[in-house]
Each structure stands twice: as C-alpha cells, then as structure tokens.
Design goal:
- One of its GO terms (cellular component) is plasma membrane.
- GO terms for molecular function: lipopolysaccharide transmembrane transporter activity.
- This is LPS export ABC transporter periplasmic protein LptC.
- It comes from Flavobacterium johnsoniae (strain ATCC 17061 / DSM 2064 / JCM 8514 / BCRC 14874 / CCUG 350202 / NBRC 14942 / NCIMB 11054 / UW101).
- With about 180 residues, the protein is α+β, with helices and mostly antiparallel strands.
- Strands 2-3-6-7-5-4 form a 6-stranded antiparallel β-barrel.
C-alpha cells in the first residue's frame, strides 16, 4: 500500500516541477518579446532635416541624436539630446526654437519641447519656459508652465500662454511684469 502512495507522490512532484520550470521559461520569453518591441526602428546621430512644401523650405531641424519609434502602436520620434529648429512662414520670416529634449508624436502632430525651451521670432521676441507644446497642424504653441516673454514692450512673466508661431497672436493666462500697452484702460 505504501508503494502506490510514494509512486503517486513522486509522479505529482515531477509534474509540478516540470510545469513550474516550463512556465518560468515561457514567462521570460514573453518578457523578452515585450522588451524588444520598445526598441527604436531607427537611431541616428547628427541629423539635419529640411521640411518643404511646394518646393519652399518650411522648417529645418538639427539634432545630435534622433530615435524613431515608428514601429510602435502610438509612433513617436524622440530627440534625447535636444533640438534646434528654424520655422519659416510664407514670407520666409523665421522663428527659432531650441530645447534640451523633444518628442514628436506622429498621430497627433504635437511636439513636446522640454528643458530650457527658448523660442525667438525674427522680430526679436523671446519666450522662455521649461516645457512647451507645438501643434504642427495649427502652427500654435502652448504651455501651462511659468514663462518669461521679452519683446520691445518689456519683460513679462506669467503662467500659461499660447501663441501663433509668428507671435502675432498671444494669449496669456496669468501675467506680471513691465510692459507697454496701446490700449486705454
């Protein structure tokens, strides 16, 4: 009677150990598959990209590192070492953008600029902040972060601003500082 109980116990133990190690092996394989999916489709050093529309240059992007994740479900391009961008309007007036880090989301056409973001118009207006978003479709900048805006009217500080890429339309939420206004109070 003892022999069948030992035999059954041994068989059950062997099956349990086999299943345990078999599942662990599969789990590690699944982890590897998930990990490998978040590898960039391409990796480039020292990029200089020119964007055109009808033969005219609309923008120039320069970066020392670009990681393209177009192989993911929500594709994006990352610039971990920052970007230098020059945007041109229809009259070839320029807007200069610099940040320490950037991510461009392909599905939404939104660029997330982070770290010492500085946007300068050809007219000399300068906006500085720690994070700024750029809507490429509407050519519109916006942030909820603190900012510093310098122009011919003076220097102003605030939190929350949105504006057109040529600085012709500026909407700010909370602002303080010295500036001149043409409007009567």
């Amino acid at each position: 009677m003892n022999l069948p109980k030992r035999y059954i116990t041994s068989v059950v133990t062997v099956i349990a150990v086999t299943l345990f190690f078999g599942c662990e092996s599969n789990f590690k394989e699944v982890q590897k598959i998930n990990f490998s999916e978040f590898v960039p489709a391409s990796d480039a050093d020292t990029v200089n990209i020119k964007y055109t529309d009808s033969g005219k240059i609309t923008g120039v992007l320069i970066s020392s590192k670009m990681l393209d994740y177009s192989n993911l479900e929500f594709p994006f391009t990352e610039f971990p070492k920052g970007i230098d961008v020059t945007l041109y309007d229809k009259k070839q007036k320029r807007t200069f953008i610099r940040s320490n880090y950037a991510v461009s989301y392909k599905n939404t056409s939104i660029i997330d600029l982070q770290g010492k973001v500085k946007i300068t118009s050809e007219a000399g207006q300068v906006l500085e902040t720690e994070q700024m978003f750029f809507d490429q479709k509407n050519e519109w900048f916006y942030t909820e972060r603190k900012f510093k805006l310098t122009d011919a009217k003076g220097v102003s500080f605030g939190q929350g601003i949105d504006f057109s890429k040529d600085f012709k339309v500026i909407n700010s939420q909370r602002i303080s500082g010295e500036f001149e206004s043409d409007e009567e109070l």
